[in-house]
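Narrative progress, year one. The postdoctoral researcher (J.K.) led the effort to move from monomer predictions toward full complexes, under supervision of the PI. The following entry was the first complex the group processed end to end, covering 564 residues in total.
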Amino acid sequence: MTFISEILQPVRESIQRYPDRNAFFIQNVSYTYSQFARRISAIRTVIRSAKADEPVWGLSIQDNLNTYASIFALWMEGKCYVPLHPAWPVDRIEDIKRQVGCSNVLDNCDVPYHGDLLDDWKDCSENDLAYILFTSGSTGVPKGVQLTRSNIAAFMDSFWKTGIRIDENDRCMQVFDLTFDVSVQSYLVALTRGACCYTVPYGQVKYLHAAGLIQEQRITFGAMAPSMLTYLRPYFDELDASSMKACILTAEACPVDLMESWFNCAKNTDIYDFYGPTEATIYCTYYKLTRGGNNLSLNGIISIGKPMANVQAMIIDDAGNSIPENSGASNKGELCIAGAQVTPGYWNNPEKNATSFFEKDGTIYYHTGDLCYWDKSGNIMYSGRIDQQAKIQGFRVELGEIEYHARNFYNKQKRVMAIAFQNDSNLTEIALFVESAQTDTADLIAYLRSKMPGYMIPTRIIFMQEFPLNKSEKVDRNALKQQL
Amino acid sequence: MTREEIISKLTPIAEASFQKSGMVLTNDMCAQNVDTWTSLAFMQFLTAIEEQFGFKFKMMELIQIKTMGNIIDAIGSHLS
């Protein structure tokens, strides 16, 4: 189980076996595996000719063939990519580039093809990095999660052992930004099996574009965030999703009633709820739902199931002791993850690494921050977050990061509180409370937009003369939340 | 209802949904050039349009809608 055996070799086999089949369908244009291979070869020449031979390269993510080819060109050259979203604030992009020390950025690398360069992969260690994803950081600075080549190989091995089968006849959907790790699953599953990857463009209303692909392109497999289906739910009776044979719901808590409706719409689909933090490489547990069956749930949320093949899960109590499996709802604790998929740590961040990882009986575990318990059946039930983290359309958002920037806007002269809440449609939104008299919010919003991606911008701003306090004399988040 | 009347009625709905005051609706407005044109805001926009103009969008017409111009056209065709 190596990066070469699980990723590079299967993709090369797809290219060799199916040169004239479609590898991608991007913005209504199909690209064959042969065209994909030529772009990989062309971009490898650029990487080889770079003045600075750096291990980490920036990748300006765009919805085009060159962006996907750049990923494989970098991997074949033994490099690691850091996705940079053109819509992010410049400050954030520059901060990430500075953190990882990369001066090379591939940006729609449309260079001429000078011959085949698909073999001759650079010798690398399995411990070398494949990608670094930056997620929201509670201190105001995004933190880089490093994933190695062996992490991804272990993930792919785990994935195929779930029983999901994809072949060259499948049409797989890729709806996620390349800054988000489910995108890696979405393109790898297709390309390592000779299937076609149908992408959803940036700058679109994703759920509608995805619905269009499902219906018009007869998509057979795809991963989506439950919120996308929540948006589509009013139109389920019009949507023909009969072509879908397997569908993964991930990145957010998965409501059981939504899944029952989705089963009725996607009549031939197996539905899976996959769970996983970026730190454990895309997914680490899964639950296969039963059509018409009694699916395990807690407070209307589907179980996150059992660990994948290369994952060890442990739930610990406040004292750090492992809670026995099958011990039931009265024994909640923090879910911790170990195994071959777990990151070696955050990029250049020893303080965060010291608090996020721990060793027990010779094994390194990652603190997920998720409150869970072992159901009597041995499945894991998700019960909420331990810390102040929210998921917006699948993206991780540290509320502390929003508060950090809002406080800076007010020159640290006002107290602010970011609160995640469920709206009437059961979608997560963020409200920002400001301890102040009512003022115009345009400048505040503009400032936040200059510091954070759009999904992190609060949808409601509420001014209060004085924040409520709890018995510990701290701002009472629950009291604020009740006002929403 | 004329196109101008539709735009006049649509403008406050767009301002509320996209959280922008003083919007001047143009045909080329879309998710790529309106920074608050998110999935959530767009869903709220559609719901408000349906309530205000008294009809329901079909999913297939929504799939074709990419711009504000498309939305104005769609409202016009529902009202004609």
